[in-house]
Amino acid sequence: MTDVIRRKIDRARPTQAEGAPGADRGWRLALARAARDAMGLDLEFRSLTIARQSLAEILEQAPDLALIALLDGPRGGLGVIMLGPSVTASFIEKQTLGRLGSQTPPPRRASRIDAAMVAGVIDRALVGLDETLADEADFNWAGGFRYASYLEDARPLGLLLEEDAYRVLSAEVALGGGDGRTGRVLLVLPAIGRGEAPAVLDTSAEAEAPHFTVALSAQVMQADCRLDAVIGRLTLSLRQVMTLAVGETLALPRSALDAISLETIEGQRVAGARLGQHRGMRALKLNEAVTTRAGAGAGAGAAAAPRPAKTDEPPPTELRAAG
Fold first, then answer.
1. C-alpha–C-alpha distance, residues 96 and 117, integer Å
2. Residues 168 and 191 sit within 8 Å (Cβ to Cβ)
3. How far apart are CA 56 and CA 53, in angstroms?
4. Where are the domains of the chain?
5. I need a surface site. Which of 34, 93, 219, 231 has the fewest CB within 10 A?
6. Which residues pair with 276 in a beta bridge?
7. Contact call for residues 87 and 60 (beta carbons, < 8 A)
């Protein structure tokens, strides 16, 4: 679809209030909090509409003597915020005098100094809008904008902004609480979002978690587990070990064949057994239940088979029949 056709389709769409509740609620909260936190100024929304408009329509409805600030957005996108003269005057008064006067100052054209004084409030509001929309789809078109520069009037907008459709958040606000001043605030952003869409939580991951656990357990349970059948243990001195030679025999206790210990490669005892035969092959017959201890390692001395006391007797020279 070419840009020309897309623009025609956008302009043909209804201009009534649109947009998800996220942008409506987000801008209300963000601007009110920015005015309160930055200046201690109460700001309440009397009304707020979100409409899709063309650039020509935006230029026609710009408030007289408004402070116009250009906004930088994602991927080179440009937006605009317009503050009515009473809103600008209230922001300046609150910051310079610490309060609002009993009378609304006469309307005047905003200056570059005025823009510099309210730029921080504008950026604070835009940051708050980002935070409010962090998990909502409206962040795609309403998020990521910041104050860029000041314009003396609305005429340069026709050259600076693209001939695309825009979403216009038009608000009537009350300042100072009670029956204080009122004014207009317009936030103009490209209708076609250029920001990154918020990450959507994949709920299927939670649903698949039990299946993953079962599958992982099945794989682990199929892993090889080596067990050593320990017939007996002998404790020899280093001198005796150094004198061992091929053909020598080591005597085992008579009860060794009936007290074989099944152990892991870490020396953890898991069961007891006795030596026998099955179909002509040596086999072990368990004489106690297999025990497992989670987290037990080689240092679990209580589960390891007992070791005989050290002996200084020389090794035997002949093998004796056990049992």
1. 10
2. no
3. 8
4. 3-190, 224-288+304-317
5. 219
6. 283
7. no
Q: What CATH number has the domain spanning 3-190? A: 3.40.1550.10
The CATH superfamily assigned to 224-288+304-317 is SpoA-like (2.30.330.10)
Please name every residue paired with 278 in a beta bridge, in sequence order, or none if there are none: 281
What is d(CA 306, CA 264) in angstroms, rounded to the nearest whole number? 15
Gap between the Cα atoms of 282 and 253, Å rounded = 19
Hey, which residues does 80 pair with through a beta bridge? 70, 188
- Mean pLDDT value of segment 65-82: 93
| Residues 116-130 pLDDT 10s | 999 999 999 999 999
Are the C-beta atoms of 170 and 51 separated by less than 8 Å? yes
pLDDT digits (tens, 9 = 90+) for 216-236: 666 667 667 778 888 877 888
Distance between CA atoms of residues 198 and 160, nearest Å: 28
Which residues, listed in sequence order, are joined to residue 282 by a DSSP beta bridge?
Answer: 277
> What phi and psi values does residue 40 have, to the nearest 5 degrees?
75, 30
Q: How many helices (H) and strands (E) does the chain have?
A: 9, 10
**Is residue 85 a contact partner of residue 107, using CB atoms and an 8 Å limit?**
yes
Q: What is the pLDDT of residue 188?
A: 95
Q: Rounded to whole angstroms, how far apart are CA atoms 86 and 97?
A: 16
Q: pTM of the entire structure?
A: 0.56
Q: 53, 15 in Cβ contact below 8 A? A: yes
Among the listed residues 50, 6, 58, 20, the one whose alpha carbon sits nearest the alpha carbon of residue 197:
20
